[in-house]
Each structure stands twice: as C-alpha cells, then as structure tokens.
Specification:
It is built from two helices and no strands. By secondary structure, it is mostly helical. It has one domain.
Length: 62
C-alpha cells in the first residue's frame, strides 16, 4: 500500500467521522463510544498495514 493511499484512507475516515459527529444528532456518550471504536479499528488496521501484527483475522476474541 502506498503512502498516498494510506493518507487518503485516513483523511476519508476522519472526514466521515467528523460528518457523523457534526450532522447526526446523538448523545455525547454514544459519540464518545463511536469515536473510540473508530480509533481502535484504525490503529489495528495501521498496525496490520505496517506489518507489526501479522493479520487481523488471526485475532480472536473470547
């Protein structure tokens, strides 16, 4: 994955999250949870892209 593609994906995720937070009315606690989930997913994706974790599909919960 090229650096340009990586930056475009991060900008798009940020833009979509900003639009959801700005234009969709919801409780502040739900917004915080949504933001936290998106940040965690993006961090896991970045770790997978850079090869720090082998594969996200190998992570099992429970």
């Amino acid at each position: 994955m090229s650096l340009i593609t990586l930056i475009i994906v991060l900008v798009l995720v940020g833009l979509i999250l900003w639009m959801i937070n700005s234009y969709i009315p919801m409780q502040a606690t739900i917004k915080k949870i949504l933001n936290a989930v998106v940040v965690i997913v993006v961090i896991l994706w970045l770790l997978s892209v850079f090869g720090i974790i082998d594969n996200i599909e190998n992570i099992h919960i429970g």
